[in-house]
Each structure stands twice: as C-alpha cells, then as structure tokens.
Amino acid sequence: FYSHAEYVKEYERGGQPLNSIFPCDRWDMLIASAKPLGVFTNGTFDKVSFPPSPGEKVYIADDEVLINLLGLDVENGLNLGSLRFHDVPVSLNMTKLLQKHLAILAMSGSGKSYLASVIIEELLLRKPESGRIAVVIIDVHGEYSSLANKPDKDSKFDLSDKVTVVRSPFVQFATPLISSRWFGTFQPEMSPIQIRELGRIISEMRKAHREKPYSLTELLSYIESDSKIPPRTKEALLGWLYALEDTKLFGTEEAPDLETLVKPGHAVILDLSETTSLKKKQLIVTYIASRLFTLRRRGKISPFTMILEEAHQFCPQARHELAISQNIIEQLAREGRKFYASLCLISQRPVRLSTTVLSQANTHIILRISNPNDLDTIKASSEMITSDTVGMISSLPVGEALIVGSAVNYPIFVKIRKRYTKESA
Q1: Which residues pair with 163 in a beta bridge?
Q2: From first to last of its 425 residues, what are the pLDDT tens digits of the chain?
Q3: What separation in angstroms does the CA of 53 have from each of 36, 57, 210?
Q4: pTM of the complete model
Q5: Half-sphere exposure of 303 (CA within 13 A, CB side)
C-alpha cells in the first residue's frame, strides 16, 4: 500500500492512524540469507553433508558453539576484544596468530597502533607456563613508548619493567659483525669488484685485530693505506663507506645488545621518531632484522615477533634504491616461521606493500579502509574476503576490525578491547 502515495494521502484525510488501516506489524518480516557451515554433534563439528529441511526453525547459536565454530582459544589465547553483536571474547591462539605472520591493515586514524598495543599487552602479560615470546617493535612515530611508563596507582597492569625503549640516536651497529656482502646491502650500487676487495680487507682486519673490535673509521684507514686495491676501485669504495660513516650508526659494539634484551615476555621498542632520513631508518631496520634472524637461527635468542610500523616504507611493492631493507624482510616472511621468527606488518597503504610479504602473512586484521586500490589489494590477498566483505570494511567504525586467516576458522568482526596502559600523549 505504501508504494502508492495517493492511497496513503487519501486515508490520512480520514484522520485515522495509518497503523490501524495498514497493520504492518502483522505483515512485516525479516528475510536473511544463511549458508550452512557445519553440524555440531556431541561436541564435534563436521562439514555439512545435506541441507536443512525447508520450514525448520532457526535458532541463535550459543556462546560455546560460536567459540568452537570459530576456533577461539578462550582459556589461553590473546584477548583482542569481543565478537561483534555477541558477548563472546575473541581470544586467539598465539601460535596460529603469529607463527605464519600477521598483517594489520587500516587507513590512518582507524586504530592500527592501538590494536598493536593491545596485542603487545597480551604478549607481555602472558604467564610463563602459557608460553611467551620476545617482542621487537620498529616504532616509526614514537607511538609505543608509553608502554614503558609507570601506570597510575589505581592500575593493576604495570609493564614498565618488561619494556625497553631505545631511541634512534643510541642505535649502533657492530662493525666487526658486518661482512662485505652486508656492506653491499647497505650500499646497493657497490660493484662486485668493490665488494670482493672489501671482503679481503675485512678478512685481514679480523686477523690483525683477532678478538679486538674495530670501528668503521679504522676500516676506512686500512683501505686508504692498502696498496693492492686499484685506484678507481679504492676511490669508489671509500666514497660508499664514508657515506655510511656519515650516518653515525657504525661503532665497535652493538647497541642495543639484542642477544641480552630479546627474551621471552620482554619488549624492545626502537623509537625512530627522531630520524627523518628514510634511508637511515631502512639501514636500522636492515641491521636489526638481519641480526635478529641470525641470532634466532643460531639459537642465541628466544622466538620473537617483530612488529614493523609503516611496513610499506621498508618493503614496498615498487623496487627502488631506498628499499634496502626489502630483501631481509622478504626473507623473514619466507623462512622465519621455520625458526619461530615472525613478522607483524602494519600498513595504511596495502597497495604499496610488497605482495611477496603480504601473501606470506597468513592472518590479516583489517580495520577501516576506504581507498579502492587498497581494498582491491586486500581482496586479492585473501580468498576468504568477498565483495560483500569488502563493502563492510569500508564502513567499519573506529575500533572494529575484520579478522581473517589462520588465526580463526571463519572471518569474524571484532570490537577491539580497551588498552590496559595509557596511550602516548
């Protein structure tokens, strides 16, 4: 009736309430499309072998069924919040969430860093018997340093003794640990001949110094005094190494001492907010990631996850001269899970993030994204994200996210819980 405006207008003239003339409350119905996912029988979940009969009643699933269906780990998982429209805690199994890498994707202001802080809190508050890992955070904008602050007296949660903050001016590379090939990674335009000659000199330096550490300045002096290097090769090699010396990153010893600080239940925050040079940031990420992977393979440090903010800056889809950290990030993505060395990639521009790395992240947590190119990239990266889901992502409110991948049996929408610690001012 309401589709014909003239009918409504005519009845309104009679002065009677419309609901007495058109009893919509008796006619209206809600029609929903549902897809059977499985059958619960005696606590076990099996795939659907036949459809439900027409006319059967539909009931809302209780909490226990939802927990089992979605694969949540309520007793021992990481509590990220609650299931949308349900009072069910979304506690994810730590191994399923992190071992095969995690990507947090969202536009600016949607709560990426807030969510990452919640995950860090959960990792640091875990009991030893539940299994703990180390956390290393590449903090590009200084958003995580507040985790190290002493809480208010009323707070029950104090992480200050579990967090070490290292500002970028205090980061130092141990020159004796750096091979000629590694120097070649720092300066990608170095030629094979230059790298070969540098390798010979480093070998001689190590023999001459034995166990005594040496600096990049000493290495430069040794090259200048070496008569075996062809003049042009020496000139170019000195140019590359002097450029590295200007960064003030190279010393005789490593700072922070990763072998000491990277331990279960502890977080190391590398605050790069004081560094404006993208290349210098990439040098730091390259060194830290390489050292972490090497130490983990040798069993010198515990299993860890490295949280990488602005991941598209350090591992971009388009290769260019500043992407010196790309190779080690991609290597970690491909090989890290074998050694319990995981990545947590955070990006506001998924379209600019290396597809090699993004495809290796088996769990995606997606907050609001509206850019069509980013949405297309996300859809292409996960077969479980449909066109309807993409439409819902673009309209998510702040603080809500879609979780899809290895950490859950089916895609779910979650309301992120409040932080236990205070945010940075």
Answers
A1: 267
A2: 556 777 777 777 777 776 676 666 676 777 888 888 888 877 778 888 888 888 888 888 889 889 989 999 999 999 999 999 888 999 999 999 999 999 999 999 999 999 999 999 999 999 999 999 999 999 999 999 999 998 887 778 899 999 999 999 999 999 999 999 999 999 999 999 999 999 999 999 999 888 789 999 999 999 999 999 999 999 999 999 999 999 999 999 999 999 999 999 999 999 999 999 999 999 999 999 999 999 999 999 999 999 999 999 999 997 655 689 999 999 999 999 999 999 999 999 999 999 999 999 999 999 999 999 999 999 988 888 888 888 899 999 999 999 999 999 999 999 999 999 988 76
A3: 12, 9, 80
A4: 0.90
A5: 16
Long-range CB contact pairs, 86-90, < 8 A, 24+: 87/63, 88/63, 90/403, 90/412, 90/414
* Partners of residue 103 on adjacent β-strands: 345, 364
Helix (H, G, I), strand (E, B) or coil at 23: coil
> Using the 8-state DSSP alphabet, how is residue 136 labeled?
E
Give how far the C-alpha of residue 106 lies from the chain's centroid of Cα atoms, to the nearest Å: 11
Amino acid at site 342: S
Residue-level length of the chain: 425
**Which domains occur in the chain, in start order?**
78-171+255-416 (3.40.50.300), 173-251 (no CATH)
Q: Take residue 119 and report the two structure tokens written for it.
A: 């995950």
Question: Position of tokens 């010396």?
Answer: 245
Strand 173-174 to strand 412-416: parallel, antiparallel, or no bridges (unpaired)?
A: unpaired
Instruction: Confirm if 148 and 317 have CB atoms less than 8 A apart.
Output: no
Contact 286, 185 (CB under 8 A): yes
What is the C-alpha separation between 218 and 107, in angstroms, rounded?
46
The amino acid that residue 38 corresponds to is G
Cα–Cα dist 424/53, whole Å = 55
How far from chain centre, in Å, is Cα 338? Answer: 18
